[in-house]
Amino acid sequence: MAALSLPRLVIRSLRRYPWIPRLRLGSGLILFTFVLGHFLNHALGLWNIDVMEAAGDVRRAVWQSLPGTVLLYGALLVHMALALRKTARRRTWRMPIAEALQLALGLTIPVMLIDHVVGTRLLDLRFNVPDTYHQVLTTLWPGLVVWQTTLMFVVWIHACIGLRFWLAGKSFYARFAPLLLTGAVLVPTLAMLGWIEAARRLAITGEGAERLPRESIIWAGPVIEGSRMALIVIILGSIGVGVLGTLGVFSRKRVMITYPGGRTVRMRPGQTVLEVSRENGIAHTAVCGGRARCSTCRTRILAGHAHLPPPQPREQAVLERIHAPANVRLACQLRPTADLTVQPLVPARDSVGAAFAVEDSYRWGVEQQVAILFADLRGFTALSERRLPFDVVFILNEYLGLMSALVRKNGGVVDKFIGDSVMALFGVAGSAEAGARQALAAAAAMMEELDTLNERLNAQVSETLKMGIGIHAGPAILGRIGGGADAELTALGDTVNIASRLETLTKEFGLMLAVSDDVFKLAKADPTDWYSEELVVRGRSNAILVHATSDAASVRAALAPAAEAASG
User: Fold this and answer.
1) CB 42 within 8 A of CB 192
2) 220 CB neighbour count, 10 Å cutoff
3) Domain limits at 551?
């Protein structure tokens, strides 16, 4: 998942959500694509007005074509309609600051955008006034600089908050957050400087276009004012419906919700459990902002489950994905009609900042494709029985210290030490493909360094230390397990179990390293000279292809094709 390309990420997200979230996400991404291209086009004004105009011609050819127009304005109408719908359905106005800011900016954008749409697209269609940069910048400079700049930042901040709500639960988000933040600051800044610099140069050189024809101005004024007033009425109407719902105008019936600790609050039918929590200052996590894109608001129903309405498709999709039991529901989607006793399952620091409190997505658990390595020191239990405690600890520290250093040197993360065994994760901070190659490279280094360690310990240990290594790659749940800020990252799931089984199989093979074929496929490595066998691993019904060796040189030889492909 870490290496998932943007198009694949979008497709998977759209497939996962029911139709309303799909429309919201899809329309938002279309609008963001348009805005990003528009802003980058503006930034070219820092270079040259002709380059800026040439790029604008390409952009207009795409978005002003019939398919582009339908896609753009369709996405705009859909996104606005869904925002108004969500506003009207609100049953509390207490929410995290980021969510409130996104809502306020989203309702402001259509009102501010009317001038720009009428002054460019509609004047072009009605009066054949070209919306080239020469024409538009001449119109904007200097009287509309503040208005246009404000509009740009309002649109951009709204879009960035929406993207963060979407991406916050992804495994790669924490790793790329600094890069995304840099882009979020640079793009609008360069866009603003670019169009202002271009407009200023046009005014100084006198190369700007003619001012708008008088008849176009006379026509545009009433259209802008009429459209703006209509939008304001629609927006206020949506807010009004939400306020009335919050006041309980639509139903005077009350439902009681009991939280851990015995606190009971009264809610109105139509509210979600998450809205009730926020309204009453009860800490309740919602990383995605209550959009059913994550499961961090999941709540166990301790009493009253039989009277709940069944999950709607968007909630059902998330519950099925996390294999939730029947008494667990998403608080952001659950609208009770009878009394409940609930227990939020994901800890939160505070109700207002909970949505943006997550900087480390692994704290909540993410599914990610990784390579997992188990290394076990053979016969150490028997060896330790014949030695003094000091000798046992010394030998074990030497071995574990060396092996964990090799794991980290090759890009891995030490998950845990289990007696004389090491469990390591690869691909956590990069792609699964890179993680598979790193795991194989680490295994080769561990096999080589074990010989060095044996030579160094020869005076203390008469027996030769031996070990077995198993590697498997696939999806695993990564999370920080244990209380407190020092909780360590660990992996859970079938992939972990198979890697452990492969390490055990090295005893049966009489070889040092056993690797699943999945690892080789990801690493694009070639195990031609290895011992290979298809077998059923304990705990799995389907057979898997396993490759084994005791020769570190053969591991590096298997990696050679991947290294050549990377260098080429």
Assistant:
1) yes
2) 19
3) 365-567
